[in-house]
From TrEMBL:
Forms a complex with TatC. Part of the twin-arginine translocation (Tat) system that transports large folded proteins containing a characteristic twin-arginine motif in their signal peptide across membranes. TatA could form the protein-conducting channel of the Tat system. It is a single-pass membrane protein. Keywords: Cell membrane, Coiled coil, Membrane, Protein transport, Translocation, Transmembrane, Transmembrane helix, Transport. Residues 107-153 are annotated as: Disordered. The gene is tatA. Belongs to the TatA/E family. GO terms for biological process: protein transport by the Tat complex. This is Sec-independent protein translocase protein TatA. It is found in: Cell membrane. GO terms for cellular component: TAT protein transport complex. It comes from Geofilum rubicundum JCM 15548. It comes from the Bacteria. Residues 117-132, 141-153 have a biased composition (Basic and acidic residues).
Length: 153
């Protein structure tokens, strides 16, 4: 015997059809077939509706995600621009502070221009103090040299 479906042979299938024919009669079998066809058709429509609903909701979710992604990209560009502005301002403030500390923001003056442009005579107390400081520095360095030569090698 030939196996047809699910391990059922052709003889078993014929026997099932004869049993169905005897139970329901020849008039009821077409009605049963129509009802079975309608039920299968309705089941197929319900399955298609469910698939359609899933695909529509998936498409809505994709649109929402795409919109969120665009918002995130736009906000990230705005944040990046703000960060660049903050870094630029910080660099400006830092460079101004460094320039003020080292007095780099003042115009350069050469000594020749200073001598020619100033009509004031130098303050004698300031020059005397500077001369005394330089003499003290020279005498202390000479003392250090003498100490170094006094020590035996």
């Amino acid at each position: 015997m030939v196996l047809f479906l699910f391990g059922i042979s052709m003889g078993e299938i014929v026997l099932l059809f004869l049993v169905v024919l005897m139970l329901f009669g020849s008039k009821k079998i077409p009605d049963l077939a129509r009802g079975l066809g309608r039920g299968m058709n309705e089941f197929r429509r319900a399955a298609d509706d469910i698939k359609r609903e899933f695909s529509q909701s998936a498409e809505e979710i994709r649109e929402d995600l795409s919109e969120m992604e665009n918002n995130i990209r736009q906000n990230s560009h705005e944040i990046r621009d703000m960060a660049k502005d903050v870094y630029q301002e910080a660099d400006d403030v830092t460079s101004e502070a460094v320039a003020d500390v080292y007095k780099l923001d003042q115009p350069e003056v050469s000594f020749e221009d200073e001598d020619l442009s100033s009509d004031k005579s130098p303050d004698p107390t300031t020059t005397e103090k500077a001369d005394a400081d330089s003499e003290d520095a020279e005498s202390s360095s000479q003392k250090d040299l003498k100490k170094g030569s006094d020590t035996p090698d």
